[in-house]
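New to this. Please check this fold:
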Amino acid sequence: MAETTWFQNKHIVLGVTGGIACYKACELARELGRQGALVQVVMTESATAFVSPLTFQALTGREVRLSLLDPKAEAGMGHIELARWADLILVAPCTANTLAQLAHGQAPDLLTTLWVAAHCEKAIAPAMNQQMWKHDLAQENLQRLVSLGTHIVGPDSGIQACGDVGSGRMSEPMDIVLTLESVLSQGPLAKRKVVITAGPTHEPIDPVRYIANRSSGKMGFALAEAASRLGASVTLIAGPVYLETPNGVSRIDVETAAEMFEAVHQSLDDTDLFIGAAAVCDMRPSHPSANKLKKSTDDLSHITLTENPDIIQSVANANNRPNVVVGFAAETDDMLAHATQKLTAKSLDIIIANCVENGQIFGQDDTQATILSSHGDPQVVSGSKSQVAIDILNTLSERLNTRI
């Protein structure tokens, strides 16, 4: 058995819906059992066309539940008993159809009825064609579930069964297990909602040129991954980066500062901790050209700029302000003085200061940061960005627990 004990004697309902990724659910059920969980599989009718219920029965030692209308199982209101039994309901794979049903409270079968009836932790591992995954309705359904506290695992990107390449593949079983570990753990951020911004923003000059900065997004993504592992429900709002979404994290991609501002404020309700790790461009071109500018015919020597909204300050002053608001300061000189001034001017609880003289820190895997607050001495943390993220979040969780 693995070292972790989070799954020991936990009651997990594994909902399996009708998609080609059903075969991964077999390995998932077996691995959860290895970790010490008691797994009850519930299959939709279409799922049985891909994998036999006997397979799951052999792997879990429990008879698979198939129908809401099973006279034997429902003699004592079995679906209610099962809803009360569960510590976690995981739907993996979760098809586009089931995603829509769960998001809108529809309960046409046993699995969806359990979902509506249960008051335990809930998670889904989406699996669908990349075009279906990108559809606005699918994304709206996903965000609705996130707003209701559902944990999202994946999906991954790659070659799909239909031959398409893109996002929509069900996450690998071990990645799902790692995410569920954070869901079931009683870590310092358990039950907390965390919103994190990461990466740069791109402010268009014309269709091919833009103003940007050197942020890689690695620190923000490390913070998102660490927060999820510490038990938080994490929304990551990312500028243009080439990084994979951390397990268990809900990701919203944006390009410009204006888009990030809107996404942040749409995600802010009931947020406990906000971390503004994104390197947002201070300015944007006032009048982006709809066509590519030509150096032979256009004046490229002068671009009129307009100030972008200050996202972190707007969060700190919002009516639905999170309990703790954290900013970042990347400075080339007088780091502590400049960071302290921003801490006060922007009404932040904590600011994380980095020295970026000569371009250091940007894009690197290691970092050094100084944690500053209005009270207490500065705290210096260094090492890999993953380890620094854990150190920062342990400090923030202490502050969060004193504010709530």
Summary: The domain at 193-403 is CATH 3.40.50.10300 (Rossmann fold). The longest helix spans residues 385-403. The chain has two domains: 11-184, 193-403.
